[in-house]
Amino acid sequence: GQNIDQPTEMTATEGAIVQINCTYQTSGFNGLFWYQQHAGEAPTFLSYNVLDGLEEKGRFSSFLSRSKGYSYLLLKELQMKDSASYLCAVMDSNYQLIWGAGTKLIIKP
Amino acid sequence: GAVVSQHPSRVICKSGTSVKIECRSLDFQATTMFWYRQFPKQSLMLMATSNEGSKATYEQGVEKDKFLINHASLTLSTLTVTSAHPEDSSFYICSARDPGTGDTGELFFGEGSRLTVL
Fold it and tell me: Is B62 exposed, middle or buried (0-12, 13-18, 19+ CB in 10 A)?
């Protein structure tokens, strides 16, 4: 079956760095997405990785290792507004998105 | 960037009534739109893929007669929850991919519609 695993919840301190991991097992691979979702709102796009390596976009970076079925989202200089759920999703061989359950990130002052 | 608009954002209805949710792509034409449902503290669950001019493709376990999807134009898809019951109360989200960014382009999400069935 297809499976996306990410931690349920993480806590970090304002100004610090946090890494959210995602491992996957899917039928084929056409890219991995990270989305941010605040409570009660729709997800917003953060990043897309299809090749191995690190993609940096401001305070957020995303890493992919296809051979290991592994990705992480790195958030630097954490701000209180970063408190949200972070969803990992993989596009399979049929171009369908398989979603992880999301990681709830709690930022403390 | 591309914008997807969803309406209504919140709806409360009585059990047994039907509710229609609209999803519009405002600045691009979307041949395919996706409808998701999200229960509290759970991940997004794909309900169906809406294809312009043809029947929607439903995921396993989703009743096509209960969740009617119509994609009559390249900018509008509608989801109708028929004979709604309290267990249908959920957050419904639509999304579309801008074809200009290719098959692997990012998905743009509507604002979501919170349905409460009394």
Answer: middle
